Amino acid sequence: MVGGDVAAAVELSDVVVSYGEKTAVGGVSLSMPRGRVLALLGHNGAGKTSLLQVCEGFRRPDAGSARVLGLDPVGDHDELMPRLGIMLQSGGVYPWAAAGEILRLFASFAANPLDTGMLMDRLGLRKVERTRFRRLSGGEQQRLSLAVALVGRPELVFLDEPTAGMDTEARHTTWQLIEELRADGVSVLLTTHLLDEAERLADDVVIMKSGKIAATGTPASLTAAAGIDLLEVRADPGLDLLTLPFPAKEASPGEYSITGALDTRALADVLGWFAATGAHVTAVSSRRRTLEDVYLSLTSDLVGASQ
Ligand SMILES: Nc1ncnc2c1ncn2[C@@H]1O[C@H](COP(=O)(O)OP(=O)(O)OP(=O)(O)O)[C@@H](O)[C@H]1O
């Protein structure tokens, strides 16, 4: 990290991206500090890739402004590119070149590249070093794209669905690499559809819905916000839940889930309510809602809407 250089990794102000009549990003503002991992979540078509393209300088916003490492991603593109690592959603490299050649080519563009052999070993690419890109499996192409993004020791990395199509081992290696990047002070902006991935890796989460920000926060703050604990109670089926002082539903016969700010007092109230109905309670469990619960509650009305 350069001392005294305090510009945010990414600073977006009212960014709009339109494709003809279609508004893909409808006024997004966010500030991503350096050295953190930010996960951009959202349904298919929410505008995540369009927003990344603005940050990468591949698309000029139709309105609003973007600064990346304190620079204009379009106007200062040449100055910025050597400081960025970019993993596109698919391909983006020469389909006829071999995996090893591609990685060494990108390493040759960098002033102080990582050791390509080490990266190939880490990402399990040695055995396909001489295989042409277009003959690699989808997961191998993803691993190579990640290696290409990292080989130049970037300060800021953009990863568009980095583990999509990867097997479990490669996914864990990728997670480790991202954690190592953060430990080295590198900033990482990634998109993902995997909520457990975001929960594990991200310092900050931005949930997008139809081109706008629906929620932001740390995974802990998003899941710990009031009203998001979950209590599951097994009891007699068919209880009338209308008088229960918390949102509740009978998920399946005799399986009740109750959501709310369930502190000790509230838990006592809920169990007291079951006792008062005379119902026979056979099991009680509670869990903190996961990021996936929060995400689904924010975006569930979109299920099927994008089809
Ligand atoms: N080149 C384009 N021309 C027209 N419409 C586009 C273009 N690129 C994206 N779109 C539309 O803009 C919207 C946002 O697309 P974008 O790729 O940014 O979403 P996303 O959140 O990355 O989706 P996914 O999770 O499926 O990758 C979508 O409705 C998409 O169809």
From TrEMBL:
<keyword id="KW-0547">Nucleotide-binding</keyword>
<keyword id="KW-0067">ATP-binding</keyword>
<keyword id="KW-0046">Antibiotic resistance</keyword>
<dbReference type="InterPro" id="IPR050763">
    <property type="entry name" value="ABC_transporter_ATP-binding"/>
</dbReference>
<keyword id="KW-1278">Translocase</keyword>
<dbReference type="Pfam" id="PF00005">
    <property type="entry name" value="ABC_tran"/>
</dbReference>
<dbReference type="InterPro" id="IPR003593">
    <property type="entry name" value="AAA+_ATPase"/>
</dbReference>
<dbReference type="InterPro" id="IPR027417">
    <property type="entry name" value="P-loop_NTPase"/>
</dbReference>
<keyword id="KW-0813">Transport</keyword>
<dbReference type="GO" id="GO:0005886">
    <property type="term" value="C:plasma membrane"/>
</dbReference>
<dbReference type="InterPro" id="IPR017871">
    <property type="entry name" value="ABC_transporter-like_CS"/>
</dbReference>
<dbReference type="GO" id="GO:0016887">
    <property type="term" value="F:ATP hydrolysis activity"/>
</dbReference>
<dbReference type="InterPro" id="IPR003439">
    <property type="entry name" value="ABC_transporter-like_ATP-bd"/>
</dbReference>
<dbReference type="GO" id="GO:0005524">
    <property type="term" value="F:ATP binding"/>
</dbReference>
<feature type="domain" description="ABC transporter">
    <location>
        <begin position="10"/>
        <end position="235"/>
    </location>
</feature>
<keyword id="KW-1003">Cell membrane</keyword>
<dbReference type="GO" id="GO:0046677">
    <property type="term" value="P:response to antibiotic"/>
</dbReference>
<keyword id="KW-0472">Membrane</keyword>
<protein>
    <submittedName>
        <fullName>ABC-2 type transport system ATP-binding protein</fullName>
    </submittedName>
</protein>
